[in-house]
Amino acid sequence: xxxxxxxxxxxxxxxxxxxxxxxxxxxxxxxxxxxxxxxxxxxxxxxxxxxxxxxxxxxxxxxxxxxxxxxxxxxxxxxxxxxxxxxxxxxxxxxxxxxxxxxxxxxxxxxxxxxxxxxxxxxxxxxxxxxxxxxxxxxxxxxxxxxxxxxxxxxxxxxxxxxxxxxxxxxxxxxxxxxxxxxxxxxxxxxxxxxxxxxxxxxxxxxxxxxxxxxxxxxxxxxxxxxxxxxxxxxxxxxxxxxxxxxxxxxxxxxxxxxxxxxxxxxxxxxxxxxxxxxxxxx
Length: 283
Description:
By secondary structure, the chain is mainly beta. It contains three helices and 16 strands. The strands form three sheets. It has a six-stranded antiparallel barrel with strand order 3-4-5-8-7-6.
């Protein structure tokens, strides 16, 4: 699964005392740039104002070894209104169930315009579990077929645009474009829809696609919730929620992530039909 990007503050020892040192919360801002072979796809800059990085700070820091985790970051995009954002449920479910929460939205806009960093108050409107619906999928993919949520902002986001849905699944080998904020930096990645008999049962209910380009691990932490757009009309066909990797090789360090082979899927996503179904659940 593509996990929300965890924001860390390092704990450094000085003699017998431990002093928390907060690292920079934001990666250097990125721009929505055209991926390789962008001539066959829509311009990613046209949808830049519809996509944001969302950062939520925990009420209390969480400790992981020597690291202090102060919050999480994911990707979200505007759906039907400048007050409603779609993201991955595995990020939204970290938010408290009741009340408005303080958060920050970051948006990398067009070249020559300043990036936006806006403090907001938000709450989860729909947590992405349909009433009475089974989890779907098997193994570690169980439940991921419903891994979408809708977040409501207390006030509209300035100059936001909204994205439309294409509920019908894209055909095999159809080109797609993903706009996301892995590591808090705007990235545009062109990809291709893949079918895989090997993965069909394991990731039942999810869409699979392959990122084109040299960085097959691009859409990792912080990219959860990114819109997967059809290259023809720029409509959302799926919502990114997973990174696929290969088993580690014996001569590599145990924590080294190995990308999937060329020609195979690199990521999973929740089909837009799931999002269309929960739209009626918005209060």
